């Protein structure tokens, strides 16, 4: 760049260089299907079926921690079977899952402003890769991390790896998610966070974790990011 060239306007306007999105319940409207799949899997192996609240609470956690919380009376030796039954029920319903309305427009606007867009999710790598094959998502995300290849939330390893990959500091990184696990992970990594209230967890629990904003819809999140992201 010439010494006389103006500074990049997109970079000048950004507060955050890297934005990490949770997946289920934040970008994808999948909370109800995941909740039902967890409940049916526990029923299949003879455990006490968790309530909607308890089943939704584990969304975003690593698999072992999620199963231990959702099915405390199921022996750990049966977790592989429980996980298989969950995948069976989820795969039977996943064709009904779609992006929240307005998500693609929001991601495209952020991409145009040259944010690094990443995913930090409790999904498996294989599950995320299937979702990312959708034509409309190709090329939107710069990197991703999953719980089975790093560490489950709220451990900060996913965010640490994403920041290290691009040389971005915690002060310039924003985590966006629908659960307390996402917000706690951001705190543990030293990053700012934004919560969405339309996913798995009740927003009453968000305040203690200090999100900069709680969005009640994707258009509301989009507007906040354009003004403050």
Major sheet: arrangement of strands: 3-2-1-4-5-6
- Mean pLDDT value: 87
Question: If helices are DSSP runs of H or I spanning 4 or more residues, what is the number of helices?
Answer: 10
Major sheet size, sense and barrel closure? 6 strands, parallel
What is the class of the largest domain in the CATH system?
Alpha Beta
Helical content band: 40-55%
Q: Report the count of strand segments.
A: 6
Class based on secondary structure composition and strand pairing: alpha/beta
Strand content: 5-15%
Judging by the overall fold, what is the CATH architecture of the largest domain? 3-Layer(aba) Sandwich
Reported by name, the CATH topology of the largest domain is: Rossmann fold
Radius of gyration: 18 Å
State the CATH superfamily name of the largest domain. Answer: HAD superfamily/HAD-like
The gross shape turns out to be globular
Terminal residue distance? 26 Å
Low-confidence stretches: 1-7
Number of domains: 2
Order of H and E elements? HEHHHHHEHEHEHEEH
Please characterize this protein's 3D structure.
The protein folds into two domains: 9-30 and 98-228, 3-Layer(aba) Sandwich (Rossmann fold); 31-96, DNA polymerase, domain 1, CATH 1.10.150. The chain starts with 8 loop residues before the first helix and ends with a helix. Strands 3-2-1-4-5-6 form a six-stranded parallel β-sheet, with helices on both faces. The chain has 229 residues and is α/β, with parallel strands linked by helices. 41% of the residues are buried. Mean pLDDT is 87; it is low at 1-7. The protein is built from ten helices and six strands; from the N terminus they run αβαααααβαβαβαββα. The protein has helices spanning 9-13, 31-44, 52-57, 63-70, 79-93, 103-112, 125-132, 157-166, 180-189, 218-228; strands at residues 18-21, 116-121, 143-146, 173-177, 192-196, 214-215.
